[in-house]
Amino acid sequence: MALATPHEEPLEGGAVNLRLNRILPPLAVIALVIAAWWGIVVYTESPIFPTPWAVVTGTLELAQDGTLWEHITASLMRVGIGFGLAMLVGIPLGLWMGWVDAAYRTFNPIFQMLRPISPIAWIPLAILWFGVGDISPIFLIFISSVFPLIVQTTSGVHTIDRRYLRAATNFGVSRAVMFRRVVIPAVLPEIIIGMRIGIGVAWLVVVAAEMIALRSGLGYLIMDSRNAGNRYDLVIASMILIGVIGLMLDGATRLLEKLKTVRWRYVR
User: For residue 111, what is the domain's CATH number?
Assistant: First the structure.
């Protein structure tokens, strides 16, 4: 039977302490915010603004009748389709622009001109072109996500250490093989950064679009709760859910950083 070494317990204790040091500070801040929120509402005796407990009960009310899950599913579906299309277009286009100088010189000025335009500014055109339905927010999500992916992927190709390319050339590697075996693995960390930026903007845009042009989703839930008898408990609940889901989406994207083909870039 293998005996435990004297160093195992301190190492396990150190790992536990490290996890606690990461979790406890944000939890403490959240607890302070909730306590301050509750105290201010009670002190001011606001008839409209809800207490944290009222927000909890309102959320449970929507969860029990299934309305909450329908709105969450609708928003996630739109983000999934729009962001997926942005990846299918943005990543290959960014790789091509980074690898082919003529493509970069031709398309980069156009994308740099379009990129600063707020996705919200596209809402009137989206409604004009696609009407009031799911296609409009999907288009807005695509527009908001594709430019970060293009720019970040192109930048990743341009910042590859030229020693890798020269080494591959010296070994007689063809450009096609070099692109597949050297360029793409080297640019993966930058693609993930572009994905994190894009998914955050996409989640923001879908909520804004749902407030204006749709009758489902978390954005619509906020406006409907406001208009249907000033249900600010549901407004605040929807806002908190938007933040939590956004955090989860970012965390899911960050998991890609642990892939073996990507992890080397994040070694400290």
Answer: 1.10.3720.10
Give φ, ψ of 5 to 5 degrees.
Answer: -75, 155
pTM: 0.80
Token pair recorded at residue 247: 């955090």
CA distance 82 to 119: 13
Question: Tens digits of per-residue pLDDT, 44-88?
Answer: 877 788 888 888 888 898 888 888 899 899 999 999 999 999 999
- Which range of residues forms the domain containing residue 257? 52-266
The answer to whether residue 86 is domain-embedded is: yes
Q: Is 248 domain-assigned?
A: yes
Q: What is the pLDDT of residues 149-171, one digit of tens each?
A: 999 999 888 887 777 777 777 77
Helices (H), the chain: 8-44, 52-65, 67-99, 101-114, 123-130, 135-158, 162-170, 175-178, 184-213, 218-227, 232-254, 260-263
DSSP state, 180? I
